Amino acid sequence: MERPLFPHQDLAYDAIIFYTASGDSSFMLKQEAVAHLLEQGVRIFGFDIPNPDGEADMAFPLHHQILAADGLIIENLTNLEPILGKCVELVCLPLLFKDSDGSPVRVIATLRS
Questions:
Q1: Burial class of residue 40 in the structure, from the number of CB atoms within 10 Å of its CB (0-12 exposed, 13-18 middle, 19+ buried)
Q2: For residues 109 and 89, is the Cβ–Cβ distance under 8 A?
Q3: How far is it, in rounded angstroms, from Cα 15 to Cα 10?
Q4: Which tens digit of pLDDT belongs to each residue from 67-110?
């Protein structure tokens, strides 16, 4: 079923979290949607799944698209229910590894007032 991903076209956020409720790896985000979000200034893309490109696509097109725009990808987010539909401030605390392009990260979300 296709539906509008963004009911409000003018976004004022630099991060967005996609919640599938079950960590469903069949979730597919289209490159057009990512392009729209990047145009709106979003640079941090969070997911409750291990790979937003899907298990079958080992070319990682969304990864390349987001990273080429100096974006960040956070995968395997958990315990998102308390912040659903809310505007939050994200604090991301990665481990620093020398010569690495990725890291485990502790993500903290605080409600904006």
A1: middle
A2: yes
A3: 14
A4: 999 999 999 999 999 999 898 999 999 999 999 888 999 999 99
Query: Are the C-beta atoms of 19 and 74 separated by less than 8 Å?
Result: no
Q: Which residue carries 């509008």 as its tokens?
A: 4
Please tell me what DSSP assigns to residue 96.
-
- Distance CA(105)–CA(41), nearest Å, equals 22
12-27 pLDDT tens trace: 679 999 998 876 667 7
- Can you spell out the DSSP letters for 10-50? ----SEEEE--SS--TT----HHHHHHHHHTT--EEEESSS
Instruction: Provide the sign of the torsion angle of the four alpha carbons 45, 18, 38, 61, taken in this order.
Output: positive
Q: Which of 99, 95, 55, 71 is nearest to 13 (CA)?
A: 71
Of residues 88, 93, 94, the one with CA closest to residue 113: 88
Q: Which residue ranges make up each domain of the chain?
A: 15-86
- Alpha-carbon Rg for the chain, nearest whole angstrom, is 14
